[in-house]
Amino acid sequence: MKGCVMLRSRKRFLTALFVAFLVASGVTWAQSTQGSLIGRVQDQSGAVIKGAKVTVNNESGGSSHDTLTDSKGAFQILNLEPSHYRIVVAMPGFDTSVEDNLLLSSRQELRVDVVLHVSNVAQQVSVNAADIGAITTDTPSQYFSESRCARGT
Length: 153
Description:
- There is one protein chain.
- The chain starts with a helix and ends with a helix.
- The protein folds into two domains: 1-31; 34-116, Immunoglobulins (Immunoglobulin-like), CATH 2.60.40.10.
- The protein contains three helices and eight strands.
- The chain is an alpha/beta fold.
- The strands form two sheets. Strands 1, 4, 7 and 8 form a four-stranded mixed β-sheet that branches. A four-stranded antiparallel β-sheet has the order 3-2-5-6, with no helix packed on it.
C-alpha cells in the first residue's frame, strides 16, 4: 500500500512538472520582442520590380540587413529588434528610394510599400573631328561629270 501511495505521488509530481514546462514554454514564446518589415516595390505605373536591393538599417544599433525583391516585387526582413529603421531601395535605371525613421514595435509586422521612379539618365556623346583624320573617296567632280554624260547634259 505504501508503494502505491509513492507511485501516485510520483505520478502527480511528474504531471505537475510537465504542465509547468508547457506553461513556461508558452509564456516564453508569447514574450518574443522581435518584429518584421515587409513590403512591395513597384514602379510609377504599378508594375512590380523584381530584383531590387532592399537594405534595412537599424538607426539606433547600426545593424544592417539586405535582401532582393522576389518575382512579385515583395520583400521581408524577419526577426528585427524593436527600434527605428531606415529602408533604402535601389535598382539600376531607377532613382534610389529612402524611407527614414520607421518605428518598429515588439511583435509588429510593419508594411512599407515603395514606388521607384525611372531615373533621368543623361548621356552625352562627344565626337572630335580632328581625331578622325582624312577620309579618302572618289572625287566628286569625276562622279558629277559621269552622271551628266549619262543624262546627256
